[in-house]
Each structure stands twice: as C-alpha cells, then as structure tokens.
Amino acid sequence: MVNAGATLLAERLKAEAARLGFAVCGIAAAGEDPLRGARLEQWLGEGFHGTMDWMAARADQRRAPQALWPEARSVIALGMSYAPANDPMALAEVGERARISVYAQGGDYHDVIKRGLKALARWLVAEAPDAALKVFVDTAPVMEKPLGEAAGIGWQGKHTNLVSRTHGSWLFLGAIYTALELPPDVPHADRCGSCRACHDACPTDAFPAPYMLDARRCISYLTIEHKGPIPPEFRAAMGNRIYGCDDCLAVCPWNSFAQSAAANAAFLPRAELAAPRLADLLGLDDAGFRRVFAGSPIKRIGRARMVRNCLIAAGNSGDPALVAPVQALLADPDPVLVEAAKWALDQLAKIRPSP
Ligand code: B12
Ligand code: SF4
Ligand code: SF4
Questions:
Q1: pTM over the 0.85 mark
Q2: Which site among 35, 162, 189, 195 is 20 to 30 Å from 270 CA-CA?
Q3: Tens digits of per-residue pLDDT, 185-228?
Q4: pLDDT digits (tens, 9 = 90+) for 46-78
Q5: Going by CA atoms, what residue is nearest to atom 21 of ligand 1?
Q6: C-alpha distances in Å from residue 258, one per residue of 251, 262, 294, 301
Q7: Is 192 among the domain residues?
Q8: Are residue 215 and residue 277 in the same domain, yes or no?
C-alpha cells in the first residue's frame, strides 16, 4: 500500500533526478509481467542473441526484477539524453572517414550514468534510511527498456529502443531497484502508429517483425559484440560504420523534439572520435589504440576488433589512398585481420583505375 508520504517522496525523488542531470525518471512496480518474460524467452529461443551467451546465461534473473532480487518492490527507471547536435548520417558517403555511433563519441556512458545513479541512491537513503536498493546500468540482467516503458518514461519503438516524446530515441537508460513501495507511474502508450521509418532505414534488414530485432544481423552487434570474421553478406552494408550504428534511431520522427542542448556535457563528441580518418585507425598498434580510446566505451572491444571493422570500412571506401595502410596489415599476426585485409584489397582493386 502506497501512502501520502511515499507519494511526496516520489515527487521529490524525481526533482532530485532532474537536478542530477537525468532527463526522465519514472517508477514501476517490481512485480513480474509474464508477457515481458515470455518475449525474452521467445527472443532467446529464436537465437536472436547470437553469441551473446551472457543474455541467455542469466535469463531467469533478467525476466523480472524480483527474480534478480526478491526484496525489490519498486523500479526507478531513469534516462539521460545524448541527443547529437549534428546529423549522425552526415559521414555516410565520406569513404576515407570512419563512422562511430553517437553514443560512443563522448565519454563512457556507463561511468556517467552509474555516478548519477549512485548520487540519487545516496539521496534516497538519506531521505529514507531503511531504503535497501541496487543500481544498474546496461550490464546487469535487467530489462531496462520494457521497465522504462512500464515506468512511463517512454515506449519501446519498432526499432526496440525506448523512445521519449521529449527526447526522441537518444536516451541512455539506468535503473534503481528498491525495497521501498513507491507509487507507480502509468505505463507509456505506444506512439509509433503506422510509422516504419526505422525498419525501412536498416541497412541489414535486421528486424524480422516490428518490435523485434535479430541481433545477428545488426551492425551494432557485428561491430561490437561479434568475434571473428564479419560474415561476408553484411560487409558491404556496413559501409564506413566501425563501432555501432545509428540509422534506425536517427530516422525516428520523434527526434525532432529532442534538444541537443539538453545533452550531458560528458557525452559531447571528442574531436578525434567525431570523424576519424580510417588511415589513422588502421595504423594503430595496441598502445596507440589504448591512448586514443582511453575513457571511451570503444576501448572494451580491443584493437583487433576495431581494426577488423576499419578494414571492412576501407574495403567499402572506394579510396585508393587506403591500399597502403591495408596492405601493411597483411603481415598482422591475427588471421582475422589478414583475411579482412585481403577482402579489403579485393574491393579496392575493383575501383582502382586500370593501368
Ligand atoms: C543486448 C543489447 C544489445 C544487443 C541487442 C539489442 C536488442 N534490441 O535487444 C545489440 C548489441 C544489437 C545492441 C545494440 C544497440 N544498443 Co543495446 N543493449 C542491449 C542490452 C544489454 C539488453 C537488451 C535486451 O534485453 N534485449 C533482449 C530483448 C528480448 O529485449 P528487447 O529488445 O527489449 O525486446 C523486447 C521487444 O522485442 C518486445 N516485443 C517483442 N515482440 C513484441 C510485440 C509487440 C507488439 C510489442 C509492443 C513489443 C514486443 O518484447 C521484448 C521484451 O520486452 C541493453 C541494456 C539492458 N540491460 O537492458 C542495451 C541497450 C538496449 N542498448 C542501447 C543502445 C543505445 C544500443 C544501440 C543504439 C547502440 C548503437 N548506436 O549501436 C544499438 C541499437 C540497436 C537496436 N535497434 O536495438 C540502450 C538503449 C537505450 C534506449 N533508449 O532504449 C540500452 C538500454 C543500454 C543503456 N543502458 O542505455 N544492444
Ligand atoms: S542499429 Fe543499424 S543495423 Fe542495427 S537495427 Fe538499427 S539500423 Fe539496423
Ligand atoms: S522510426 Fe517510427 S516506427 Fe521506428 S521507433 Fe520511431 S516512431 Fe516508431
């Protein structure tokens, strides 16, 4: 039973979240939603998670907050805006440059959101000293998007990400589970209507149905999560994307309400990551990779996977100036890079003028 004190606490909590830089904050009950769990099972059953075994490994805990932490009574769902100031598609045709998705051009969002969640958790404990709680961002077995929808901060669009009426598709999510009974917000209604712009924009046809993603076909998965060679059928479609993909987010009409000025300064693009030259990235050794990507989420994929992605982009570039840096990688000890370099040279040979 939620009392008047809890209602006032929830209002003040939301005000504090806003003060800490969260663009949206809502509350959902922590009880199980059988549909949510069933859809997770269906997604895993179809094999749409590919090699992300960690998604299947803790599926029992992921399906419901109380399955992860039985004491949980309420979920506080939060989002921070990273709406870009510039068009994320602007570099699509600039072959000599690499495209890094908007979310990874600035500081690592895991660190920024976690800091904000911990500050909000400290505030809550100061206000309600008995408040047991746990904070999560991204990596825990928590279904952040459906929980965000249940908490009314947005809805899961047909591209499967959470969309907000005021911040479009550009929100990072985080969650606090608490043993406190807080008054739940009304779940957000679906506002996609007959739109299917995100599905039409996807270069690899990664949506088998509305609200359903086959991660194995998604460029974000292929460039970040997938180990080994990039399957040949997706190489041309990758274009110059070397880390993540923004296409389905960027075309969402609800982005027109997103204000880039609202974005957290920590997420502003770093100059060297906004439009890096492929030639420079191809030449990075391990030490150089660590130097360039320190503090960026990209550092977690390591140099080999990043250079693999750059080789595919080089093959798609149509830029003869990239032949030399690609050739240098034929001597790399990693066979995945050697194979990708050979593929890239074959592609570049097709566009080179005949002697
Ligand atoms: C695994 C994962 C990925 C995988 C798989 C993505 C996916 N859609 O599942 C890959 C590597 C591909 C990925 C890519 C990206 N990701 Co990601 N990812 C996650 C992670 C860790 C888990 C997501 C998950 O639970 N997937 C499992 C499936 C079953 O869940 P689901 O997509 O919610 O599926 C639901 C729908 O399919 C729905 N459904 C099914 N059928 C039907 C039918 C109807 C009618 C309806 C209404 C619904 C419906 O039910 C399912 C369960 O609710 C979350 C963090 C987290 N802990 O939540 C971040 C997260 C989702 N990622 C995020 C981001 C930013 C991205 C990228 C944009 C990054 C980029 N620019 O490259 C892309 C976007 C690609 C895309 N279109 O989804 C953000 C999204 C923020 C937001 N506003 O929603 C999150 C929340 C991380 C964060 N903390 O901010 N990601
Ligand atoms: S992130 Fe790119 S590849 Fe993945 S579903 Fe969206 S548009 Fe398709
Ligand atoms: S692009 Fe259209 S269909 Fe896709 S999430 Fe946005 S409103 Fe929904």
A1: yes
A2: 162
A3: 999 999 999 999 999 999 999 999 999 999 999 999 999 999 99
A4: 999 999 999 999 999 999 999 999 999 999 999
A5: 138
A6: 13, 8, 29, 30
A7: no
A8: yes
Contact by Cβ (8 Å): 2, 182: yes
Domain assignment present for residue 189? The answer is no
Tens of pLDDT, residues 97-112: 999 999 999 989 999 9
Residue 260 has pLDDT above 80, yes or no: no
Contact between 255 and 83 (Cβ < 8 Å)? yes
Q: Do 215 and 302 have their domain in common?
A: yes
Are 17 and 130 contained in the same domain?
yes
The range of the structural domain enclosing residue 132 comes to 4-99+107-178
- Answer yes or no: do 26 and 152 share one domain: yes
Residue 138 among the catalytic residues = yes
What pLDDT is recorded for position 354? 52
Residue identifier of the C-alpha nearest atom 5 of ligand 3: 157
Q: Determine contact, residues 179/187, Cβ cutoff 8 Å.
A: no
CA dihedral angle for residue 178, residue 183, residue 184, residue 185, rounded to 10 degrees: -130
Nearest one of 123, 93, 136 to 239, comparing CA atoms? 93
Distance 164 CA to ligand 2 centre (A): 19
11 with 67, same domain: the answer is: yes
Judge if 168 and 215 occupy the same domain.
Answer: no
Say yes or no: 317 and 235 in one domain.
Answer: yes
Within a domain: 185: no
Look at the chain and report how many structural domains it folds into.
2
Q: Which H/E stretch holds residue 4? A: helix 4-19
List strand residue ranges (DSSP E) for 214-352, in order.
Answer: 241-243
| Neighbour tally for 331: CB within 10 Å | 9
Tokens of 60: 């029992």
- Of 87, 138, 185, 205, catalytic: 138
114 assigned to some structural domain:
yes
For 35, the token pair is 């549909």
Identify the residue whose C-alpha is closest to ligand 3 atom 7: 192
d(CA 282, CA 270): 19
